[in-house]
Amino acid sequence: MNKQNQMPFGPYSRPFRLLVILALVALLSGCKDVNWGWYVVSPFTSSGQTNLQFLLGGLWNTVLLSLTAIIISVLVGLLVALPGLSSNKYWRMVNRVYVEAVRAVPILVLILWVYYGLPVVGGIQINVFWAGVIALALSDSAFQAEIFRAGIQSIDKGQTEAAHSINLSYPDTLRFVILPQAIRRVLPALGNQLVYMLKMSSLVSIIGMQELTRRANELVVTEYRPLEIYSVLVLEYLVLILIVSAGVRRLEKKLGANVSAQ
Known about the structure:
By secondary structure, this protein is an all-alpha fold.
């Protein structure tokens, strides 16, 4: 007998199905008394079209912020990963201290500290966009460092030995032999981090960045329709992340096909 069918409260059990049905009934019965206001975001009214344009106006900032931060975090993460591969314990300690220290700080706290603290500590005037980029990239770089370290260590040592046998230097070995293979292996993880970055970019709204979430918050204050406006916000992120995920999967298949062809 299938073990899944023996579970008393599994996804295919009768109590689970009954609970789902009761939840749907309760939701639908409660919705009939709700005074919906979908006209606020309706594409068939002039005010709805204006509000939708306002909401979508934050899309470019969200994408630009996330892409800039992910590019910087990948470069910094790769640089941080290299000391972790060293045979010198002090270099490995540098890698470990950076990774553990950065991962221990919540990203929202880091955003606030970079925006409000960095100008005081370093005397640097910084706008909300670059404060968000620095905070997101710094936070994500620790995860990128671990991804690259694991990916590089997964490459067979014979590849490095073969590169040294033809007198390739260490930088050239990394560039032409190790990294191309490691990037193929860590690409799914890098794609996950890009999706994570898109979602975490919403936290930059707390310092006034005019991205998707900030636009939605401002519209809620003027229209007093949080359910309808935040539902559109959920749909915006859903479509954006599905598109990015599909692109990452397509890139994975393309690289996999190239590897198979070789």
